[in-house]
Amino acid sequence: MVAKALLFGSNGQLGKTLIAHYQEQSSEYSLDCLRLDKPLINYPGPSVTDGLNIADLAQLCQVLNQHQPSLIINAAAYTNVDKAEIDREKANVVNAEAVKVMAEWAAQNHARLCHFSTDYVMSGLSREPLIESYPHQPMNYYGYTKSLAEQYIQQSGCEFLIIRTSWLYSQYSPNFVLTMAHLLRYKQHVFVVDDQWGVPTSATFVSRYTLQLLQAQQQGIYHVVPSGYTSWYEFALKIRLMMSKQYPELTLASIEPISSRDYAKLQQEKYQVAERPRYAILSNTKLATLLAKKIPDWTLAFENELRLFKLF
Ligand SMILES: NC(=O)C1=CN([C@@H]2O[C@H](COP(=O)(O)OP(=O)(O)OC[C@H]3O[C@@H](n4cnc5c(N)ncnc54)[C@H](OP(=O)(O)O)[C@@H]3O)[C@@H](O)[C@H]2O)C=CC1
Ligand SMILES: Cc1cn([C@H]2C[C@H](O)[C@@H](COP(=O)(O)OP(=O)(O)O[C@H]3O[C@@H](C)C(=O)[C@@H](O)[C@H]3O)O2)c(=O)[nH]c1=O
Predict the structure, then answer these.
(1) Mutation test of ligand 2: which of 80, 170, 276, 281 has the most ligand atoms closer than 8 Å to its C-beta?
(2) Which SUPFAM superfamilies does the record associate with it (predicted)?
(3) What pLDDT is attached to residue 63?
(4) Taking each helix axis from N to C terminus, what angle separates 13-24 and 203-215, rounded to the nearest 10 degrees?
(5) 78 lines ligand 2 (CB under 6 A)
(6) Which atom number of ligand 2 is nearest to the Cα of residue 273?
(7) What is the ipTM of this complex?
(8) What sign does the dihedral 112-118-120-122 (CA atoms) show?
């Protein structure tokens, strides 16, 4: 019998990429996808159930009881880091309370839970790449809710796989690459922070390793990021370089480095900028050791994938 997997957040950048990978791989799981409320137009994917708001915890329970999945994959989240500072109730229920419901349901029904988490559970005070057991100390409300979710999962007693990743990009907005491409195309100058460090990771990369870890029946926490690291400023320069190669006819904005503090001041009339960790470099040593191979540098995936993107 084919076991059932249930994917939450199938309309997000990771959700969409996961579906594409899932279809390429033969899997022992059939996949049902649940999404908030917008129909997927002409999407040749697996069956899609519309209208599920995971913030409605009673409805979430009902859906789990109805579908009886053996594997829950949760790619749904409230991901607007700045807005989460003021929209706290919603961020908390989507990112933490709904995950608690999923984890407890999984524990009671002998299902597995695969959940995605973030570098933003960390404080950024370390100067060494962060291993999976490094203590949480979130600097913003989004990070706090994601940290809470990790704790709920571990307390629930369910069989779980938590994939922590960072600085996700894909052909689907919103993400830093597409935002930057737009700004470079339509502005004259762009200011980008040069004092926050992390690992840009493509949604394709995360999807590929997530399926490998699931197929290998792995449990616990894994950092799924490529090797190497950069700052947002250097990342923006790299995006600009790729764009200038792809679209030599375009005049692109110049990029100026700025400190996080000055960037927040610059934006303060428009919105409140959430604090971000300065040094959020996740170590992928555990993943590399499991797979017995060196994980390639982020620049390689970036250069290969950006050629396939429609940037604007
Ligand atoms: N983006 C990043 O840089 C990083 C993301 N992560 C984590 O990876 C995971 C996937 O992120 P990503 O794909 O980038 O996020 P997206 O914002 O692209 O997608 C999130 C999805 O969650 C859905 N969603 C939000 N609220 C609800 C709700 N109340 N009920 C049902 N669905 C809801 C959204 O639905 P709709 O489209 O209908 O709004 C969307 O499909 C998240 O757990 C995130 O925390 C980790 C590290 C980095
Ligand atoms: C658009 C823009 C951003 N920035 C800064 C703000 C911030 O410090 C940094 C990144 O900005 P963004 O808002 O695009 O990205 P941000 O929302 O901080 O990205 C995070 O998303 C969540 C979901 C995660 O889990 C993290 O891993 C991380 O990817 O760059 C500039 O300096 N200039 C700009 O023009």
Answers:
(1) 276
(2) NAD(P)-binding Rossmann-fold domains
(3) 87
(4) 50
(5) no
(6) 6
(7) 0.99
(8) positive
